Amino acid sequence: MGMPPLASGPHGPDTLRPLLDTVLDALRTGAAARRGPLPAGGPRAVAARVSEAAGDILPERGAPEALRALVTALAEGAADPAHPLCAAHLHGAPLAVATAADLAASVLNPSLDSWDQAPAASALEALVTRTLARETGAADALVTTGGTESNQLAVLLAREAQGANVRLVHGAGVHHSVPRAAWLLGLPEPVTVPAPAGTLDPASLDEALTRIPGPHLVVATAGTTDAGLIDPLPEIAGRCAAHGARLHVDAAYGAGLLFSDRHRPRLAGLEAAHTVTLDLHKLGWQPIAAGLLTVKDPGDLHALHHRAEYLNPDDDTDAGLPDLLGRSPRTSRRPDILKIAVTLKTLGRSGLGTLVDTVCALAEEFAAHVHDHPGFELHAPPTISTVLFRPAHATDDAVAAVRRTLLTTGAAVLGRARTDGRLWLKATLLNPHTRPDDLAALLTLVETALEGPTPR
Ligand SMILES: *Cc1c(COP(=O)(O)O)cnc(C)c1O
């Protein structure tokens, strides 16, 4: 083998085309071998198959078949969110057009830490982030790797604006990355406000803000990870304003509702937040990573300003080269904005809104079906596209075991959530191609798994 070819440059496209054929063939072969949403056999069997396909992963002499072999193995052993019975997490199948755009991002490989590595990508990022910021009533937005990094940045900006003694106050349903961000940034132990109905209770919030010395950063959630619940944002914003508290809304899941004319009003109050987390690899159908943090006061972003002589020297900035280093705590940074921009423009607001409406309607249909089924109990009507349910009269241990049986046989991928003192199965519906019949089949699978292995 001579020097291996590069993805870009004049011969890049011609070199890539046959390799893409190999990748697409391997994806098809691997998926067909799997025959379901998840590989059968559990972790040991999957690890054995991967190990066999990988062989010596760093051989003395290279193996040209590696691309086909490893992509096939990964596809065969994948949890496929495009399969209607794969519905555990906020883990969706990316849109084809977004994935194609992401290939271009890999080929061009712009790095968004300096203009001379990403001239057009940085201009596109500036344009798209401003547009998405406006959707939440903010002035600007940073691109992140997802909800976790967005929440960390929100807490960091609060610390820089309010001081290192800022106290986080959040509801019981908050995402685990929020208290973790407080730990990471050396802040005082956060205060958890009760969420009796699953959402942050404004009266208890008021009581906490009165009792506990500030400064405060209140974190509300629009779309809890466990149940898809939306905190009462207007009431929370009102209490924050009355107490001079800063407000961050974690809308990693719920922000997708902004694209839907029907569901957008449920995010009223979002525009009052100082910062908002968006995660377009959830209700935005992007390949991971596609996070954003919108920021109401662009002055808050000065805290991230950072100088490195080789990336953003003052004289370059004075001469008009955009200063990108302060747009992220990362240095090298992928142009995740390209797939997002392509998606927004290809589908438009109505196309994205239809996707959102479709999965929300699917959740309602599934919930109605669970409700009418004598063998199952529904936790509550869905708020977004998450449905919590459990087999009637089953113990928590039986519910946990059913989920693992479905995982290890590869029949279905369901999540779990503990709420109201009981364990529930969780279906997070993000696949707009799923049909109500698929979900009826899901209930049958759960019933069968609950009865245990059928005697032959
Ligand atoms: C998924 C989620 C996160 C974390 O996002 P990642 O992209 O996984 O880092 C944060 N908050 C909420 C509410 C989420 O649902």
TrEMBL record:
<dbReference type="Pfam" id="PF00282">
    <property type="entry name" value="Pyridoxal_deC"/>
</dbReference>
<dbReference type="InterPro" id="IPR015424">
    <property type="entry name" value="PyrdxlP-dep_Trfase"/>
</dbReference>
<dbReference type="InterPro" id="IPR015422">
    <property type="entry name" value="PyrdxlP-dep_Trfase_small"/>
</dbReference>
<protein>
    <submittedName>
        <fullName>Amino acid decarboxylase</fullName>
    </submittedName>
</protein>
<comment type="similarity">
    <text>Belongs to the group II decarboxylase family.</text>
</comment>
<keyword id="KW-0210">Decarboxylase</keyword>
<dbReference type="InterPro" id="IPR015421">
    <property type="entry name" value="PyrdxlP-dep_Trfase_major"/>
</dbReference>
<keyword id="KW-0663">Pyridoxal phosphate</keyword>
<dbReference type="InterPro" id="IPR002129">
    <property type="entry name" value="PyrdxlP-dep_de-COase"/>
</dbReference>
<keyword id="KW-0456">Lyase</keyword>
